[in-house]
Amino acid sequence: MSDLVTARLVLHPMTVGDAERVVAGEPDGEARWAPGYPADGDVFAARRFLDACADTGDPRPFGNYEIRRREDGRAIGGVGFHGPMDENGSVTIGYGLVPSARGKGYASEALRELLLFARAHGATRVKGDADHDNTASQHVMTAAGMRPAGEDERVRYFEITWTDPTTT
């Protein structure tokens, strides 16, 4: 699979080797990590990816992506899918950035690209959620085109739906 490229970012499809390095917290000679990468969320997502690969095979294209800045190639976070598309065309997303990369619009930029990618690959609905007090993440999803879709005692839910998944 090829990298997804935006104006300022490269979304690099995670491989098993990438995920193993993230879990171990040890970059290889080519990996360039920003300070604070990988964060706990990146490690959790990498473990989930490795479990999926072991259980059902590589989930790509609905896997994990390392978010890298184009200007210096440094990994600053991750974005990806919590699993393959379901029978109704729905996928769930998650994302996170190291603290030094927050507040610059990178998360919204990465999420917009992932939404376009999901739509181009047949998804008709993308879901996400954020804790009630995580207004920054709620803003990211809204800025990327997702809309509030309910809440419970812990989180607010967001989603975007399309009636024609092949039209971007």
Report what the structure shows.
By secondary structure, this protein is α+β, with helices and mostly antiparallel strands. Helices cover 30% and strands 28% of the residues. It is built from 4 helices and 8 strands. The protein has an 8-stranded mixed beta sheet with strand order 1-2-3-4-5-6-8-7. A hairpin with a 5-residue loop joins strand 3 and strand 4. Helix 1 packs across helix 2. It starts with a strand and ends in a 7-residue tail after the last strand.
Write the layout of secondary structure elements.
Blueprint (H helix, E strand, L loop, with lengths): L3 E2 L3 E5 L2 H9 L15 H17 L7 E6 L5 E7 L8 E8 L8 H15 L4 E7 L3 H9 L3 E5 L3 E7 L7
Parallel strand pairs: 5-6
Antiparallel strand pairs: 1-2, 2-3, 3-4, 4-5, 6-8, 7-8
Helix pairs in contact: 1-2, 3-4
Quickly describe the structure.
This protein is of the alpha+beta class and 168 residues long.
End-to-end Cα distance: 20 Å
Q: Characterize the main sheet.
A: 8 strands, mixed
Global Rg: 15 Å
Structural class determined from secondary elements: alpha+beta
How many E strands?
Answer: 8
Strand order of the largest sheet: 1-2-3-4-5-6-8-7
Average pLDDT confidence is: 92
- The string of secondary-structure elements, in order, is EEHHEEEHEHEE
Strand content: 25-35%
Write down the overall geometry. globular
Total number of helices: 4
Helical coverage, percent range:
25-40%
Uncertain regions spanning at least 5 consecutive residues:
none
